[in-house]
Amino acid sequence: MKNSFSRLLVAPLAVLVMGSVALAPFAEAAGKKGGGGGGAKPKAQVNNSKKDVRTNNVRNTSVNNVNKNVNVNVDNNRGCCNNGWDNDYHPIATAAAVTATVAVTAAVVGSIVSAPPPGCYPVNYGGIIYQQCGSVWYMPQGPQYVVINPPY
Amino acid sequence: MGAFLQTLGRFQVTTEVTGERVLADGQKLQHTATASMDVVRPNKLRVRMASPRSERELIFNGKVVTLYTPALNVYSTAEVVDTIAGMIERLQEKFGVEVPLSDLFLWGTPAAPLDKIQSAMNAGQDFVGDDLCDHYAFRQGNFDWQIWIQTGGKPLPRKIVITNRADEARPQSVSLIDWNLKPTFKDSTFAFMPPKGAKRAEIVPVKTK
Known about the structure:
A: about 150 residues, alpha+beta, five-stranded antiparallel β-sheet, two-stranded antiparallel ribbon, about 20% strand, B: about 210 residues, outer membrane lipoprotein receptor (LolB), chain A, twelve-stranded mixed β-sheet, about 50% strand, globular
């Protein structure tokens, strides 16, 4: 395990094999920032370009905490799905990517660019870092950015 | 277990969660993520969270909580003068940000009331890794949950399974937990120094209904 986090884990499940592959781009990103494992070979980037759009149509998710989720109303303010620390899946962004119809000023929701235009600034909403460029919003998707409907 | 957890002053926890998403037609997709946490009670916490979708860090020094996204070199801060449990609650309520295994900071306190549990059963003993554990199963509202607590003098939670019965597909999460009760981290781990070129992002409170 070259990922600096996961090497701490004892991992009896075969699931971790999937996990370690999937974590690869972040291990690489951490390496660039000097926080990685020191000379660790960069791993492959996750590439979701062939991912079926139906995977974005999420109606519900599992939860990870007993007390929060049992004692507090499970429905949160951000729709069905964004209710776990591991779950940075964003219903707004992905729903926008699925429909991909309406043009917001110049940028079409759902379109993908390699970098947001100059003059954008980062905004943290619900733990996710977006790039806001006037009325146009971008969400990072791997090494690229997808135009989304405003998250709030 | 709850009382024992509250006695731990300085520890490190690593976890791997396997969760499920239910698609519109009821088909389920499984996903995984990992996290490691450095903890000093009552009010210092550093969390590293990684999934295929993002890597994030949370650093809390008792006064300010910082959320950092290494891949973007972007960070956000919010003032929260509170305990770890209080900070977690505020992050959740105000900013919609969840912290892994937040139950660990609630069990053994009034924030995890036992009278909410509608049914409890001892499910016998089981192994998590090589460690013998006592297995308990509970029903509570729309949730069934199970916990594996290490048998013996250190009753640590080692595995938690939560099943959401509100959806007929019953999405479930499985968290495996490893403990280091003699951690080697230094207190400086709870002080966030923005890396070179890091940008600050405003953190916007989530909209309420």
